[in-house]
Amino acid sequence: MAENNLLSQISTIDNSSLVDRVEMQLLEIFINKGLKTGDTIPKELELASAMGVSRTVIRESLTRLKAMGLVDSIKHKGTILTSPNLAQILQKSMIPKVLDNETLKDIFEIRLILEIGMADSIFNYITDDDIKELEEIVNSEPDSTGNVLFDIEHEIKFHGKLYEITRNTTLKNFQTILLPVFNFAYDSGLINKPIKKKKHVSHKELVQILKTGNARKFREGMRKHLDNHFNRLYE
User: 16 is in which domain, residue-wise?
Assistant: First the structure.
């Protein structure tokens, strides 16, 4: 009984490395001090002295933060806080041949969900010039694509334009990362299985909805456009 009481009073040892702890403490300092993008942080020697660690530890911690896109070194200014490029960070690890099958399927599904969900943004920003460009894209596509899962070239042009119309830069950058994974998932045979339903709403029909319909109708049309993808994923 006494032994159990003693064990209950023992604290867990922090087995993270010194660099890990310094990295986390630096982040806490930046947040608690209310620093914003573009603000300069203290020099390595100043941080090392204040935190009671070597300059090497500080340098390695800052290197990690730079890799995350949280800080950057600017000539004649020093190290500043930066807003990380989320798409760029994801791109470093979004390597199709390295990802396991479950992750590939998850990414495949994410893109389907995004393209259905961006209807309101598209209708909020779309212009006549956007419609004209979409029409030019679909006019260059094959007349019939009913039995084709998707052609990567046409997919990038058409869907890339839809992402552009949303005026959401992060979303647009995210799309350039998702498409290669999407293509790989199909080419690898991961989701290439027979389905009963082949017909779907074409790009041309989606453009017509953009010209005469509304966000709700576009969501419904996009869901039907992607129906074959969903069938391969869920059936």
Answer: 2-84
